[in-house]
Design brief:
The protein has 149 residues and is mostly helical. It is built from six helices and three strands, in the order ααββααααβ. A three-stranded antiparallel beta sheet has the order 1-2-3, with no helix packed on it.
Length: 149
């Protein structure tokens, strides 16, 4: 019988689903403290972030009555991608020119200009940064919880 309290997340997944499932989950254990196991944000986490923003985009000051989630989805995804690319480095340490260039390269076909996308990109990045910064200031995600919704 499995005892999940005494197993790492990867060991539990392996025991339940087999070894082939572990790489697909993209779980990267980066630290273990006395109270929590933490892991870096992974591409598998985009689904949770996408669900959050789909439910909450309209509460943001840049959202208007004529915009929909699909208007801002590329910006939220770009904020998520930038966060994972820069390993949670504070967004103010990334030049606006660099962010703009990445946006233009990856999202040239969207209706949002960089100026329109910037606040949503920053929202997505800041949400991950807030959620992923643990008590000692290291960037990590608590593997046992999800962001407050």
């Amino acid at each position: 019988m499995l005892n999940p309290k005494n197993m790492t997340y990867a060991a539990l997944v392996t025991a339940l689903l087999g070894t082939a499932a572990v790489p697909a989950l993209a779980v990267d254990v980066v630290a273990k403290t006395t109270t929590t196991t933490t892991r870096a944000v992974t591409p598998a986490d985009w689904a949770a972030e996408e669900a959050y923003w789909r439910s909450n985009y309209n509460t943001r000051p840049y959202a208007t009555t004529t915009t929909t989630y699909t208007t801002y989805e590329p910006a939220y995804r770009y904020g998520y991608d930038v966060y994972t690319t820069y390993n949670g480095r504070p967004i103010d340490q990334i030049s606006d020119e660099e962010l703009r260039a990445g946006w233009m390269k990856a999202h040239s076909n969207t209706t949002l200009t960089w100026e329109q996308a910037r606040p949503a990109v920053k929202d997505a990045y800041d949400r991950l940064n807030k959620f992923n910064t643990n008590r000692d200031g290291r960037t990590a995600v608590n593997a046992n919880t999800q962001p407050a919704r």
